[in-house]
Amino acid sequence: MLFHSLEFVLLFLPLCVLGFQGFGRLGPGPARLFLLAASLVFYGVWDWRYLALLGTSLAVNHGLGQALQRTRSRGLLTLGILANLGSIAYFKYADFFLDTVNQLGGSFELLHIVLPLGISFFTFQQISYLVETWRGEVACRDFTEYALFITFFPQLIAGPIVRFGEIVPQLREDRFGQASSPLLAAGAFMFVIGLSKKVLLADPLAALASPAFAVVDAGLLLDPVEAWVGLLAYAFQIYFDFSGYSDMAIGLGLMFGVDIPANFDAPYTSTSIVEFWRRWHITLSSFLRDYLYLPLGGNRLGRVRRYANLSIVMLLGGLWHGASWNFVIWGGLHGLYLMVNHAWRHVGGRREPSTLGTLGWGGLTFLSVCVAWVFFRAETLGGALRMLQSLAGTGGPPDAVVLVLSLMTAAPALVLAGAITWRAPTSIELLRRFREAPDGAPPDLWRPVAMGVLLATSLFLVFAGAHSEFIYFQF
Q1: What is the DSSP letter of 202?
Q2: Which are the catalytic amino acids?
Q3: In Å, what is the CA distance from 16 to each residue of 8, 22, 139, 330, 369?
Q4: Looking at the whole model, is its pTM more than 0.90?
């Protein structure tokens, strides 16, 4: 069940809000139980058979957490981490490994395993819980509380990757489950913004990006105009798609009295790759930093070791996104970018750039990110290489008709996407303004009208079939 599906918006969500408020009158415990049951239904609608996998994972990790609270055994922690990584390795990478071996001369039959939804996200959350429990930073004896922390449906399928200390204290509050009109209003506001990003921006941009990448994956070259239109469209598509999902998750969390951390902070406005990774997929970046980069030594063991650690982290971060060498190359490119960025800072210092310099570094950063997106989006390595060739102009000069059509159709969409990306306030800024409005202030009539128009338009397009799955839904 997708957040932007009619059955979710018009049936599941209203029933959940009403049920949560009804059970909330009985106390926080019944409210948590109801929300856990609703989250399991949400997951089970996709394929009820995988509820057994999810339930087993919850039981095993909660049991390990109980044992770690008693013993603080490093060996038990290692066993728990390996068990979680083994699960994700089997479901996500077994066929990738066998296919790679076959390309090197093997003859193994692929397993054709169906990837369970959200396994990359809820596995990382459970690893972080085990580590934090072993450190003595968190403790949880209530299985319902733990299960809700992992399965809370707004962030179950595609994140953000939340941590125990960010969510569970909110679930334990005495007022949890009690109706709050301001939170409901703020949540609905954020949900509509995310829905609009997905349906009104990301999906139309996909109509420009997908045909271009389909051509190069089919073995053909594009002219440079077609290639750049396709690439820029995808760069904006993935941003609006994933940030839209994260906005919807934040909005849904607020409807149930839970503050979910932000995952994006205007990443395309970054003036360096280091800054980009502080703003893009923030919860994944912080997870990789805290549970991989720092344990490897971080930047404490000299520059060479630091660069090696960055490479390892980004290669594994790329592989986390999917079982494909293209994702590995994407991660490797970002690792290389980070090494160059840190080396430049070491040589040139951290001087504050001029306005012109800021524009230049910002443009270079965005261009570098877009080049890496080629490998993230292309279905094949050959397709990615042909897209790079096309961007460089080896596909021949643009056809005059194609050029005119691109200017008439693609240019307005790209200009609008760029204007929103670089000039409009972020959704988090808008939410802060919404929540900080003083009590008793005259209502802004434009806001409910605008939200109503955006919601109605988005739902109409969904009803008409003009929508697609979220990009990160597959991870």
Answers
A1: I
A2: 321
A3: 10, 10, 28, 39, 39
A4: yes
